Amino acid sequence: MALTLLHTADWHLGRRFPAFEHEQEQELTRARLDAVGRILDLAESRNVDAVLCAGDLFDEPSPDESWWGGALREFTRRDWTRPVILLPGNHDPLTPNSLYDASHQFRAGLPAYVRVVDRKGWELSLGDNAVVIANPCMSRAGQTDLAASLPEREEGDDRIRIGLAHGSTFDMDGHQANFPIARGAALDRGLDYLAIGDTHAFREVEPDAAAPTVYPGAPEATNFGERDTGNVALVFFPRDRRRRAMVRPEPVGRWTWREETCTSVPALRALLTDPQLRRTVLRLVLDMEVPMAEYDEAERLIGELSGSMAASPRVGVLTVNREQFRLAADAPIEFGANLPEAVRSTVARLRARAETEPEVAGRALHHLYRLVKETEAA
Description:
Low-confidence stretches: none
Strand content: 15-25%
Helix content: 25-40%
Radius of gyration: 28 Å
Order of helices and strands: EHEHEHEEEEEEHEEEEEEHEHEHH
Largest sheet: 6 strands, mixed
């Protein structure tokens, strides 16, 4: 190989997850910074020639010091000569008040091997046979094609040319995009590889093109429904420039985000046997109506998933939607032969109420059932 690169993007350091409980939110937010360490460790273990960071490394242009300080620690603890190139994206654009500005403590504290793309037409030579050319985002939104405005290959330039930009590609006719990147941009500018960021899934935009255009995806997912996240791209350039660069996804993420709907207690039991749950952010939807005995078991299984003071959770991060989790108010209730008449009368009234208020009446029946069973056990 003539050259090996690690291409990453969309770290979104400092991203908040307010839909989760405080401790869960902290764990997910910290995981993004942990991923930076794994990315740089991978770059070292693969002995890459450079690391390309294609934008949206921070979730906003002026994040709290805890986030840019954490990233700075990851960079300064390494004694490297290989360049790491930071490209401002649309979430963290190059503006006078951003952390990429020369006056900011983050920019000022970066070691010499970390380079910031701070102007249009920015270039960095990688030895004698390769060059990186880049354009930064300078605002949160825009319709400029930052790839199309990269310098063209000049006559007689036989170097490997790598483009670096941030934006959305046109995958459908008429599709509106932020900082749109047109089809064929890599070949039009005489590039051997176009490294882009924005989409959170790993994807080769034009798999059959002579020059790859690639999204590495986010190293950690940011929401449910995202697919093919948790990777960086390793890029290998052969010595013969007539051969296409080879691209391989390499996993670096810790968390898998997953939505699961359970419609029965057996399905809930089966979920607990999944060995991947500890590394999963799970949104569990309970869509079932169960009799009282199964309702108790379902509550116990949910308790095992979420954990307690005395037991570790089975799921890394769990959120439960109970809106469709219902107790069957008209299901047979085996209270026993010696049920007092007053209790029987209360059960009858609750069942009648269940016709208009099934949720309230169902829960009341469930609590009554538990009280009777506890009294019988005593």
